[in-house]
Design goal:
This protein is mainly β. It has no helices and 16 strands. Strands 1-6-2-3-4-5 form a six-stranded antiparallel β-sheet, with no helix packed on it.
Length: 188
């Protein structure tokens, strides 16, 4: 068991039956009353962030989590198959644990977060930007870049992304996996 004196950014601990990591913290010693620690914590599974205050010296149950590199192979319905890039061991993850499954293409490298004590997968973090090819979009207009007008485009994973008018079928684009928004066109 650890206490609030052991707080540091990135520390994972159990709070109210769920796993949380510390995003930021501050020890506060008011002139009157006991000292406390003001924190911002992030839920490991849901990604939800909240502010919480702990009385100084409170015991916390520290948990160990590990980030492991995996490569996406394929999916069967809501079950996604991944292969460890170091020992080639395969693991299966449910669709709701992946941050943006609609942008995941075969061969993509991801980080899977494991709870070390139970060796169970907690979440799957995609790279911030993924490069995808446009499989269908309405024909583009050359030179039409004066306005911020967008059109729908279907990418190779089947997802629909809003792209500028000058993007054509066959172009490769960079998509932000956190929001699903178009970022830029990839040359070559």
């Amino acid at each position: 068991m650890a206490t609030t004196a052991d707080f540091r950014n990135g520390l994972c601990f159990e709070h109210n039956g769920e796993l949380w990591t510390i995003s930021e913290f501050q020890h506060v010693k008011p002139g009157k009353g006991p000292a406390f620690v003001r924190t911002k914590i992030k839920n490991v599974k849901t990604g939800r962030t909240l502010s919480n205050t702990f009385t100084s010296g409170v015991k916390i149950n520290v948990q160990r989590i590990e980030n492991r590199k995996y490569q996406y192979l394929y999916n069967e319905g809501d079950l996604y198959h991944f292969m460890n890039t170091q020992d080639y061991e395969q693991t299966f993850i449910n669709k709701d644990m992946i941050s943006a499954p609609e942008l995941l293409k075969e061969g993509e490298n991801v980080q899977i977060v494991f709870h070390a004590e139970t060796d169970t997968a907690i979440s799957c973090e995609m790279p911030t930007y993924v490069v995808l090819e446009i499989t269908y979009t309405e024909p583009g207009e050359r030179g039409n870049t004066a306005t911020n007008t967008f059109k729908n485009a279907t990418v190779e994973t089947g997802a629909t992304v809003k792209v500028p008018l000058f993007i054509n079928t066959g172009d490769k684009i960079k998509v932000d996996s956190r929001s699903g928004d178009y970022s830029e066109r990839v040359k070559g």
